[in-house]
Amino acid sequence: MSEVSIEVFRKCVLIAGVAIIVFSCGSERNEISEKEEERVETIADLGALPLTATDPADNPSTPEKVALGRLLFFDPVLSGNKDVACATCHQPEFNYAEFLETSIGVNGVGRGQSRRFVDPNDIPFVKRNSQSVLNTAFNGLRNHEEFDPAAAPMFWDMRAKSLEQQALEPIKTLEEMRGRGFHENQILDEVVGRLGRIPAYRDLFQKAFPGDVAPVSETNLGRAIAAYERSLIAPNTRFDQYMRGDSNALSTGEKEGMNAFLVTGCAKCHSGPMFSDFKLHTLGVPDTENRKESDSGANNTYAFRTPSLRNLRFTGPYMHSGKFATLDQVLMFYEDIAGGKLLNPKVSAKQMDPLATHMDVNFKDISRIVEFLNTLNDDSFDKTIPESVPSGLPVMGR
């Protein structure tokens, strides 16, 4: 055999060997994926919430910060037109969420289902369903993983990290709080300037941030609201009591519902103490009709973050578009997509997350699962609303 032929033979052997290795690795990855898909989660994949929240290193909580943050949360002075407060769309009686499909922020009036736009109006509805602020102190908390509140994922598309960042985003958003009077790059300077001109706020910021040369600042605005939001926790549901050792905290039916929750595959995404993997998933949820454009989610993939399942009794309607009024409708949606139905025409079958399409939710399981989900409610959270705010504006806005 010539030297050329020998060299060609060696290359062929090498290529064949690599192909075998690649094929083997690919088969192993497929096998692992199938095993993960077939695995049935157990109660160990869930968890009780801590009884206290963890603060980021650069924003330790103090009573002064929480008190300031509460006033800011309910004060419409933070909005461009001074008509919307954080609490307009995050109301204590609705678990710091709101009983609307998608919210009416700027240029709105009224509360709850009676809220409407004021004529004339050129402001759109808020893009997505108002998520609860309650327990967001625990966003990102996962079993057996280090928890960093400074990196906690926020919003349906996870575009912000930490409550400190999250607190400022609605102020900058046109339809939520900013309105048309200010550019996105101007509004925070405007708001900080307003706060600095109110003597009561100057005093409160000084007490909350005593070491700062200029305590009334954008950074401290976010820190104060975040400190208040971290005080809004509900960690003592009957499920939490059960996980902490009280076997009588759940009824036999509720325990059966928990088993159905695990067996049907719900816990593949709704896991850990917050019942969320804090990942993005494409489910093909129908769009809200409140907006003309389709909501394409994170990175235009129609993916949205897994929401927590805690305190759902108070936070309907559900999903990012608010299209489902009841938990039964949510579970029936999962039954539909597992059966091959596509409910959003913008989302193709190949885009759908297999963790959802391979679920085994049946109509007979729905009532039991809902019964279990109701054990995740804790109504003992702080619902205090200030009688007045330093700006003198109406508490919670118009």
TrEMBL record:
Heme c 1 binds at residues 86, 89-90. It comes from the Bacteria. Keywords: Heme, Iron, Metal-binding, Oxidoreductase, Periplasm, Peroxidase, Signal. Its EC number is 1.11.1.5. Its cofactor is heme. Residues 64-175, 252-377 form the Cytochrome c domain. Binds 2 heme groups per subunit. InterPro entries: Cyt_c-like_dom, Cyt_c-like_dom_sf, Cytochrome_c_Peroxidase/MauG, Di-haem_cyt_c_peroxidsae, MauG/Cytc_peroxidase. Heme c 2 binds at residues 266, 269-270. The keyword Metal-binding applies. One of its GO terms (molecular function) is electron transfer activity. GO terms for cellular component: periplasmic space. Binds 2 heme groups. It is found in: Periplasm. This is Cytochrome c peroxidase.
